[in-house]
Design brief:
The chain is about 0% helix and about 20% strand. It has strands at about 10-15, 20-25, 50, 55-60. The chain has no helices and four strands. The protein is an all-beta fold and about 80 residues long.
Length: about 80
C-alpha cells in the first residue's frame, strides 16, 4: 500500500513547543491526526520526526499531499474527491 489516506481536507491548527520532538503522521491512518499513533504498522510509511525552533501555532497537513511536510501548503484545495 503506497498511497496515504486523506485524513481531512483542511489543515490542523496546533500549538507546538520549541525544541520538543513531534512525530507527524504520513500515512493518514492515525487516530491522533496530525500526529502518529503507530497505525502505519504493516505499511511502508513511517512518521516524520520534527522539532520547531519557536513555540506557537502552526497549520499541519492532513490531506497528506503537501510538498512542505509537515506543514500545510494549500494542496488540499486542489484535491478532487
Amino acid at each position: 500500500m503506497n498511497k496515504a489516506v486523506i485524513a481531512d481536507t483542511k489543515p490542523a491548527k496546533v500549538t507546538l513547543e520549541a525544541g520538543k520532538e513531534y512525530y507527524f503522521c504520513r500515512c493518514g491512518r492515525s487516530n491522533k491526526q496530525p500526529f502518529c499513533d503507530g497505525s502505519h504498522g504493516g505499511t511502508e510509511f513511517t512518521p516524520l520526526k520534527f522539532t520547531v525552533e519557536q513555540s506557537g501555532e502552526v497549520f499541519l497537513c492532513q490531506c497528506k499531499h503537501s510538498n512542505n511536510y509537515p506543514y500545510c501548503d494549500g494542496s488540499h484545495k486542489k484535491l478532487v474527491l
